[in-house]
Write a structure and sequence with these properties.
about 25% strand, six-stranded mixed sheet, binds flavin-adenine dinucleotide, nine-stranded mixed sheet, alpha+beta
């Protein structure tokens, strides 16, 4: 029997397993054999919330050191010779189009959290034809998330983590921990269960008496092939963003449809993203995208994810609602959850992320689809 059952093997579940394995726990991950990749595969991998200074401090605490957290995680994975970790982290920086009061707030945020920043117009850093005022955060970057998932799975297998391919239909709490029932009739039991099932998590929490203010939010992206180094940094504007990878690929994202959990890319999405690509980087107007895909974010009504024990279900924990920031926040979220499970002193005050406020805040039901 495993010490911990993790339901959901996206970036959040995998990193929870990583942290628990580091602490000597035997872990089983139960992940749905879906033909569609999870949000953690579909996402862009920018290692910063979009316009980080517009979020509350509790979000910054989960995200501000994501780049160095991933450096350490990948170094550990490399040490047990997983697939090649080279080229997964891109340290080119993050350029953000901003001006006026918003730029002042960005400077104040950067000073407070000791994040290097410099004023830089689009034409100085990114491309000569652009005119926008902006800021460059040279120490921020992005991670190639499909590669990250591969590396983490390989690492965890080598460290003895058991992977089960099954769709969980129910989590039944016991005096401590409980049972996990799969749709195919299999079941598992453990003193500790972690629910990290992305946008599908609310279906598992409902039978536990918890209605969460969570919603699916579909996003589409395009990938173009360019020469390495042509786009030096992630380029973020209010309309969308470009993400350069080390091999020259450039991602353009993203669309956002709240309440939509379909996983197929659409003609309308492609049209919107092609126009965005041409406006952000004119050379892309004459290129055809090499790849177009969609994913479903685990949307959340509030700014920060839910991390902690499920109220009234001793031994059942959850890490949910990472919305647009799951790749940047997952390393810190997973560390916090592992600390709460093992009773260690958490690296940050866990109360803002607690699930105990979830039921009451969810009663506004459908209004959050209109945000
Ligand atoms: C287009 C797009 C762009 C994005 N860009 C960024 C970005 O630049 N930076 C950033 O930080 N974040 C970004 N995100 C958000 C980020 O991808 C998500 O917040 C993050 O991946 C959520 O991770 P997760 O592990 O919670 O969920 P998921 O990745 O969805 O994983 C959930 C897992 O649970 C499994 N599961 C579900 N139900 C069950 C069940 N009943 N039984 C068993 N298993 C189950 C699923 O199969 C899946 O493997 C983006 C997302 C999208 C869609």
């Amino acid at each position: 029997m495993s010490d911990v059952l993790v339901v959901g093997g996206g970036v959040v579940g995998l990193l929870c397993a990583f942290e628990l394995t580091q602490r000597g726990r035997r872990v089983t991950i139960i992940d749905s054999p879906s033909e569609y990749p999870p949000a953690s595969w579909a996402g862009g991998g920018i290692l910063s919330p979009l316009y980080a200074w517009r979020y509350c401090d509790a979000m910054t605490r989960l995200s501000v050191d994501a780049f160095s957290r991933y450096q350490q995680i990948l170094a550990e994975c490399d040490s047990v010779s997983t697939p090649d970790c080279n080229g997964l982290l891109h340290s080119g920086g993050l350029w953000v189009e901003t001006a006026g009061d918003d730029a002042v707030r960005a400077h104040q945020w950067a000073q407070r959290w000791q994040v290097p920043v410099q004023a830089m117009s689009a034409s100085e850093q990114m491309r000569e034809s652009a005119a926008g005022a902006g800021l460059l955060f040279p120490t921020l970057g992005n991670i190639r998330n499909p590669g990250l998932l591969k590396v983490l799975r390989a690492y965890l297998r080598r460290r003895g983590v058991c992977f089960q391919s099954a769709t969980v239909s129910k989590v039944l709490p016991a005096v401590s921990g409980g049972k996990v029932l799969a749709a195919d009739g299999r079941q598992w039991q453990s003193d500790t269960i972690v629910i990290s099932a992305g946008h599908a998590a609310p279906d598992l929490l409902l039978p536990l008496g918890l209605t969460m203010p969570l919603f699916p939010a579909k996003g589409e992206m395009l990938l173009y092939r360019m020469k390495p180094g042509q786009v030096p940094a992630v380029m973020l504007t209010e309309r969308g963003y470009l993400i350069p990878r080390q091999d020259g690929s450039v991602l353009v994202g993203s669309t956002l449809r709240k309440g939509d959990r379909t996983t197929y890319p659409t003609v309308a999405g492609r049209y919107q993203l092609e126009r965005l690509a041409a406006s952000l980087w004119p050379e892309l107007a004459s290129c055809s995208p090499a790849f177009h895909w969609a994913g479903v974010r685990p949307g959340c009504e509030r700014d920060i994810p839910f991390i902690g024990q499920v109220p009234g279900a001793k031994g059942v924990f959850a890490a949910l609602g990472h919305y647009r920031n799951g790749l940047v926040a997952a390393p810190a979220s997973a560390e916090l959850l592992a600390q709460l499970i093992t009773g260690e002193l958490p690296f940050t005050d866990p109360r803002p992320y607690s699930l105990s406020s979830a039921s009451s805040s969810s009663r506004s039901s459908s209004s959050f689809f209109n945000r």
